[in-house]
Amino acid sequence: MNVETNNNLKLTIALAALENVIDPEIQLNIVDLGLVYEINFNDKEKLIHCRMTLTTQFCPMGESIQSETEQTLKNTFPGEDVIVELTFDPPWNHERISEEGKKFLC
Question: Is 0.90 topped by the overall pTM?
Fold first, then answer.
């Protein structure tokens, strides 16, 4: 799993918090699923931009996962605005699942 960022320390904090966002269909968190592609922090504008995907474009829980991701980041970084952008380029695949996630799913 490789998440792009402009601030490694804040990324570590963000990913730890996002481990609490669970994909309800798979019962695995979005970090170990590899759904998070990028999180950048703009300290000057107090803005966090998270680019992520879903396991499929037609995920029935997509809106819920996106909303929970946004709220988790807002709770973790109070006073920051958060934008969660969904993308399907590149498309998600099983290779993005972490080793911990693979053990959980087996």
Answer: yes
Strands (E) across 15-90 are located at: 22-23, 28-29, 36-42, 47-52, 81-86
Q: Could you give the number of structural domains in the chain?
A: 1
CATH code of the domain in which 19 resides = 3.30.300.130
pLDDT digits (tens, 9 = 90+) for 73-95: 999 999 999 999 999 999 999 99
- Alpha carbon 6 to its chain's center: 15
SS3 64: helix
Chain segment 3-35, per-residue pLDDT in tens = 999 999 999 999 999 999 999 999 999 999 999
Rounded to a whole number of angstroms, the CA Rg of the chain reads 13
- The domain containing residue 39 runs over which residues? 4-105
Are 86 and 62 within 8 A, CB to CB?
Answer: yes
